[in-house]
Amino acid sequence: MQESRERILSALSEGPVTGPELADDLEISRAAVWKHIEELRDAGFEITSTGSGYEIESVPEFGGIAVEFGLEAPFEIEYHDSIGSTNARARGLATEGRENVVVLADEQTGGRGRLDREWSSPSGGLWLSILLRPTRPATHAPVYTLAAAVATARAVRETGVDARIKWPNDVLVEGRKLSGILTEMEGEADRISWLVVGIGINANVGTDRLPDREDVTSLQAEVGEVDRRNLTQTLITEFHELVHDEGEIVPAWRDLSATLDRRVRVETANGTVEGRAIDIEFPGSLVIETDGEETVVTVGDCTHLRASEGA
Amino acid sequence: MQESRERILSALSEGPVTGPELADDLEISRAAVWKHIEELRDAGFEITSTGSGYEIESVPEFGGIAVEFGLEAPFEIEYHDSIGSTNARARGLATEGRENVVVLADEQTGGRGRLDREWSSPSGGLWLSILLRPTRPATHAPVYTLAAAVATARAVRETGVDARIKWPNDVLVEGRKLSGILTEMEGEADRISWLVVGIGINANVGTDRLPDREDVTSLQAEVGEVDRRNLTQTLITEFHELVHDEGEIVPAWRDLSATLDRRVRVETANGTVEGRAIDIEFPGSLVIETDGEETVVTVGDCTHLRASEGA
Q: Which among B145, B189, B268 has CB closest to A299?
């Protein structure tokens, strides 16, 4: 079902095509073709039917099928107008054995960030979770978080904002947070069983609808309303390409870093490290120089300090 | 129920005690006391009832309550005569929200090792999985595997074998494998949600019942039949103490290492590293010296080479 819908969308994307031609090409009944066309119309596609066949006149602004239409990465999109948490839903799909699914929502009612921190997800934002089953050791998991940050920064930069990444995975515009990422996984040391990368972007959301207005921003506040369908497709495609070329992720992260060459304070499970962030290492550790000594930090809360701050 | 059984066992371990005294001390009915005593007898405890009260005459050789009796670590033992996989059962308990449970079995019918490798678990062995919810970052997970290897090596050494650890977590006796460990986890970068450490020890099992007889051994083959109850208690207690003093784990591992100062070949996701194993670093990486350069390996298959082997 899923597959023939994708193939109908693919055939329609190349111009008008008749029902009988579609039925022949896809080896399904004409009634099945008609059912798919009606499903697409229900999803908001405007499809005309003339002598030369079915033709797509317009694609809906957002939604699962709209994002799948023209998506150049092999993911199924499961769309919800409203959901508790896209990560929780993706974890549920993982336990059902699924993979390569993106759970996408217009609104999350119970979104959360790292360490169960509150994460506000009003309607109009971009809230999605990507479910993968990479055949990589669990120690590589942090690089997927970096890849998500790079993909997010690249996608939002296409809307015109100067987005940069604060270690490890916050996307900032002029120091204000535009996007957050939460990666969850299950596996053994040698192997990731599943990985869920949750990405939240304050897209078409006024900052008055977000907490901590001083420290956050949104695309709407920075550049006005954006095309969320296009943004989602760019994000997923960038992410897909990055994770298939693992060696490119760290260099790409460096290029978009807001953290390197800055004074930082990182709170870790073993204490606080303060100094100058001098590099990032695979799979995602920050190298901090303090009094001529280098400390490598694998995980923690990072604060950018002003030049005058700190020891 | 669980708790009052533990308290009855604790009271009985200090000598004879009457039913009314037990009922008063535990604030339960005399009928409930009697029910617990019968449950213990069903589990194989010999309990006499005289004028001075109930008294434990003997403890069963193995089983859940037998291991709980006198266990100096806060774990509930869930015992199975036969189970598919103790790790699978512990993962199931994890999704139910449980913690600090040890799933213990006399036999596993579907045991597996790292990367789904076959792992034979005939009756008479020691097959257990420890479920924890440590409040540590996911990057620390490998140290729990080291702790399990140290606890296993220490426990089996008490039976008289010269057990040592091959990186990261095989316990060997004179180069032959006595025990294997498989750690599985779920979590986010900053936090482990749950961790299951599966430990298999070829205890009272003839090597004729194990595959690859040349490369494996058992306690039965090395020193004869062992007291599995005592072995299990020592193992769990050692593990519990180690994970509560994380800084001690790596030094303890070094002391029992069979790998350090040896020529090794490690197959990793990124290729093969061959050289001299010179150290282990927190949380469990092996440092290998090759032609004067040091390579740090976080995960892989390690082979000990003879001095004459390799480049």
A: B189
